[in-house]
Amino acid sequence: MSQHRLDYLDQLESESIHIFREVAGQFERPALLFSGGKDSIVLVHLALKAFRPGKFPFPLVHIDTGHNFQEALDFRDHLANAIGEKLIVRNVVDTIKEKNLTEQKGKFASRNALQTYTLLDTIEEFKFDACIGGARRDEEKARAKERIFSVRDEFGQWDPKLQRPELWNTYNGRIHKGENVRVFPISNWTELDIWNYIKRNEIELPSIYFAHNREVLEWQGQLVATSEFIKLDEADKVSVKKVRYRTVGDMTCTAAVESTASNIDDIIKEIIATKTSERGETRIDDRVSEAAMEDRKKNGYF
Amino acid sequence: MDILRFITAGSVDDGKSTLIGRLLYDSKSIMIDQLEAIEKQSKNKEDGEIDLALLTDGLRAEREQGITIDVAYKYFSTPKRKFIIADAPGHTQYTRNMVTGASNSDLAIILVDARNGVVEQTRRHSIITSLLNIPHVVVAINKMDLVNNSQDVYNNIVIDYAAVAISLGLKDITYIPISAINGDNIVEKSPAFPWYEGESLLHILENVEVANDINYTDARFPVQYVIRPQTEALHDYRGYAGKVVSGIYRKGDKITVQPSGLQSIISAIEIGGKEVDEAFAPQSVVLHLSDDIDISRGDVIVQSDNQPSVENELDVLLCWMGNKPLIAGNKYLLQINSRITRAVVKEIEYKLDVNSLLEEPAPEQAALNDIVKVKIKTASPVPFDSYKKLRVNGGAILIDETSNVTVGACMIQ
Ligand SMILES: Nc1nc2c(ncn2[C@@H]2O[C@H](COP(=O)(O)OP(=O)(O)OP(=O)(O)O)[C@@H](O)[C@H]2O)c(=O)[nH]1
Ligand SMILES: [Mg+2]
Predict the structure, then answer these.
(1) pTM exceeding the 0.80 threshold for the entire prediction
(2) Total domain count for chain A?
(3) CATH number for the domain harbouring residue B279
(4) Are residues B277 and B248 in the same domain?
(5) Of B82, B80, B63, which is closest to residue B17 (Cα–Cα)?
(6) For B370-391, what is each residue's pLDDT tens digit?
């Protein structure tokens, strides 16, 4: 039956579509958390395959820290518009004002921790019972442990020692009032799978994923884009380099990689050859402690 | 390129996590920064030893105690295959997490510590492997370095395990001597075992044939969601979205919807918005029927000439995963694919003794991690197949309606 064999990308795609449809079938008010990064763009494409010609049974939701790359924001609006789906944006700045939150200080003052407040408020505002996210298990060791349907209490907390059994492809999304489920349809995809899928489906991406000239600060071996959000000192080494982004997060905590890859094929070659992990190369915020991600997730972080 | 999903199982400290670390390390699937991180944490870093188990033991509590608590999923690929690894915990207490990882596996690597041989937890994980009908088993006899790579030790364990395998009806078993810590027989065949005639572990994993594990005969399509755009242009569009869990569907096929028994004909099949003539497992598709009949989430569309059982009394082998005991008469929700129905456990027929593999008749109750045979009655008829014949339509979960927690894994007989 060789004509009836699915190649690995088709298998992953089918598994993800199945998860999307389980969300649609099981929840009253789901949401798709959309950042404008490659993983959430792939999520949107999978949702198109799962639900077209119908509408998405959920809005796209972006928690905007105010520290985003303009290219990613523009792309976010462009894609939502092109597919004609509803986009809800909530701003961390507003939460900071309303709740009198204290901003981080320092050179790379990040709103990474504060965005959890806005996320939880947004979940409450719209009474979302499921939030679909683009996290992959290959990204980080705490994520490698999380179920595909991950139950969070009303404070958004994840308890890694009390995860529900998850058997076969049968997902139990039942929750009590106030709780919600985080759903990760691309749990089993690797970074390389994502890029191969983008290539095969000719998925459009924000320009910052491709090599371009940018003014960057060299900081402990990483290249951080200069911006109004980062405080420069006189001693700082700033130069223009040809770079691309491997992940797109906040400008304050995402590093660029030096690259001349201007198309998908070249990027895939670089990803295959790289000796550093995606997070290791691009995230400034994970270096703080060994369990940084686990701690953030326990507190409601996506 | 295809995908092989496998799990490492076996008793506490038999070296499951170390084996996976070694497999990732020797296949060059670990990045420099990840290696630096675990080097820093390794307790014996002064001797230049790194603890490869730290690669999968990703939770703080796991690293502190040096044990695995919940399944970790790891990924690597070779030019032949993409591998999805589930690293299961060995502790009895966390057996339900092992079951979680095992449920989606095509292959189980069951580790045995060469010094201890087959122990209770080896048997427990083997029983679960057999219950879940995992098609392929590799028995890896580990820590051979601690028994001088002795062929006698190895052979004795193989003989012991073979007896277990026969009584459990395990199929397709391969035995291999390894040292996870030294990397012997993991990626390359090792000179440490000149008497061993088989291949390295990675070679086995790359070559085990999984394509035949999919059933293309008994077509089952659980409906997940009905797509009804209800726009002017697509006023009459009504598509049944779901995954072909087994078999093949073609345009023009005569189908029956279960449990209603209504019949129709497939008028169109769509995959990702494109019309196709046929769909096969495990594709996610949209089916269109030529009649407007009542179909909703939880129904199963099957070929009219190949029907599942549709009944409300089920004989079930059950892995109990609840912290509270199961007592006959308890009510739960039973979920099979997308269908949920109320159910009552009428009777606990027997409990399986993990050591003797004997059946203890009519126990009072089942406790966490017990394996029992039960009779379940459901509020409405359930379309199902026997798990042994068709894993994708014979497995169900029990949910405690008050806590919402998944408390049981059902293998319908
Ligand atoms: N000498 C020797 N020691 C080994 C070998 N494999 C693993 N070990 C050691 O055995 C201990 C337990 O290894 P782990 O990999 O954590 O065991 P595990 O099976 O994952 O344990 P749990 O997940 O908690 O059930 C560690 O100290 C390892 O270094 C081996 O081949 N030889
Ligand atoms: Mg372990």
Answers:
(1) yes
(2) 2
(3) 2.40.30.10
(4) yes
(5) B63
(6) 999 999 999 999 999 999 999 9
